[in-house]
Amino acid sequence: MNYMELLGALAPEAIVVLTALVALAVDLLVLRQAPQNARQVVAVSITAVGILAAIIALSVAAPSPPWMDGLLINHSTTAFLKQTLLVLALVAGILSIQSRFTQHTGEYVTLLLLSTVGMMLLVSSDNLLLMFVALELTSLPLYVLTAFNKESPSSSEASLKYFLIGSLSAACLLFGISLLYGLSGGITWTQLATTLRAGSEPIVYLALILTLIGFAFKVAAAPFHLWAPDVYQGAPTPVAAFIASGSKIASFYMFARIFMAALPGTAGSAAWSGATPGWVPLVAALAVVSMILGNVAAIAQRSVKRLLAYSAIGHAGYALLAILSNTEQGMGSLLYYVVTYAVTAMGAFAVVNVIERDVQAPNGESLTDFAGLSRRSPLLSLCLLVFVLSLAGIPPLAGFFGKFYIFIATAQSGTSQGLIWLVMLAIGTSAISLYYYLQILKQVYVVESVGQPTPVQLRPAESACIVAMACTVLILGCAPNWLINRFSPNSTEVRRAGVITKPSTTLELAAEIHPRITAPLGTATGLVQKRPQFETTTANAQ
Amino acid sequence: MTPLHYYLIFAALLFSVGLAGALMRRNAILVLIGIELMLNAANLNFIAFWRYSPTANELVGLMFVLFSIGIAAAEAAVGLAIIISIYRHHRSTQLQHVDRLKG
After folding, report:
1. Predicted structure pTM score
2. Does domain A1-125 sit in CATH 1.20.120?
3. What is the ipTM for the molecules in this complex?
4. Where are the domains of chain A?
5. Which of A70, A360, A486, A524 has its CA 20 to 30 A from that of B71?
6. Is some CB atom of chain B closer than 8 A to the CB atom of A18?
7. Is the pLDDT of residue A503 over 70?
8. Phi/psi class of residue A99: alpha, beta or left (left: φ > 0; alpha: ψ in -120 to 50)?
9. Which domains are seen in chain B, by residue range?
10. Where are the alpha helices (DSSP H) in A185-236?
11. Cβ separation of B98 and A160 shorter than 8 Å?
């Protein structure tokens, strides 16, 4: 190993950090006296150039060499997830042009990019230390960004709640990690996977619970969701959109990786009859509480951002099903789900951002501000229709296939379909969620607006982003193969994992139900490291 | 040499004191102090496990503690900045006064 190779493996992250520093320097040194709008356009343009460069660097990057095992993992899936994160960060930057929540454009863009770097490292990390550092690098800028509207008491209140709950759970996570280190004697996934077994030491369960708390906070799973509604409502809307999308992708991927790859020996079972202790029943408990609480509490909300927060808690519950299925097709379906969810949530927040700027209410938007939107801006309403129906899981859209894949992966996992009760609960709560999603659409399409309907002011860049995201949701729904294929491993990955992919029964079932789903959903072998990898990598080392 | 479990029991106590403080205190600064105690308990665990591990020459536990001390400092800086911005709006750092957002 030498440092140039390390720099080569981390080139995309290095480019983003450089972009952040350049944006800060240009804003503070050159554009101090320039009008606010010009500063925002320049800062976002620099961001766009840097992000484009990083995306190109990711697309030509080679998979990580074997000496990097236990440090970093780079393969086609992580590259795709990082590219998605970068695009989401760029959209969040574009949404904040012309917004009036801050005068400190350079700092804003810098923090946004640094948080993105944290998420990119989180996706790549292959040991507990890098994971913890990356998690904090993701969170700390987000706490500050949440408080960025210094004139709004809600913004700093949301930030305080986010920070206190976040650092409390980070402390729990660190204590859990310290126990995992003590029990296994190492911090890499392979070291953990080869030493930790359920039932050997009771303290293993304490370590699992503490680690789980840390991740449940990051993905806003109930009962660790208390920050989410306040942060989504109080934070500046582009920031809330980024927290709801980018942070979700990175955290869910790491959540699944640490439990599936590093702690397979302590899984246990959540089957209705014959549950055994381990992390799977704990995740099942989180999923059940999240699905019920998120979807029921969303019904009572009057603010659309709060409603989206509770819906995000419900969606976290569905995604947790994919994690507790603890299979490779579970991992593939989880990634499809979080990526499509992130795009949809970003789009929904983008529409809310437009409405919020339009109404300029001191307490933020409310559901009634969307009344008669279809007469004021047909394009915006159509996009909102796509996003909301995708969140609800209506067939031709991406949200439907996300849920569909997850439900299949969960139902198939475990012995004799013991997890089917969770799938039935998830379908039931999906039906509840349709009620509050249709409440939004009722305001948009049925209720008359108060007074004369005036057209909504849309900026070209913003409307281009919103339309592009709506089209993405539609295309991913009509052709889910494209994205699912992305999450199948490349040949090197399979060889290195030492596992031969074999067709799964899920796939055949899926193909029967829906002829389009012939993608290798169940073959995402490279995503979940199985123990044989340890043997092959040690053989390489020798 | 003191047995390992003495350190672990002490760290667990420190963690519990920190957690109790973080959950029960009404003042944001005292909550922050509770969280710092929890982080230090984890650091103590790392050092103890590292010192007693058969592979102590790998310095893994020590490295982890160095990074986590740095992160804890950054977290305290961000936390105090947020508490200052709360104080500017509410003229108070008591958590029960910070209750605009609910539902």
Report:
1. 0.89
2. yes
3. 0.97
4. 1-125, 126-541
5. A70
6. no
7. no
8. beta
9. 4-95 (1.10.287.3510)
10. 189-195, 203-218, 227-234
11. yes
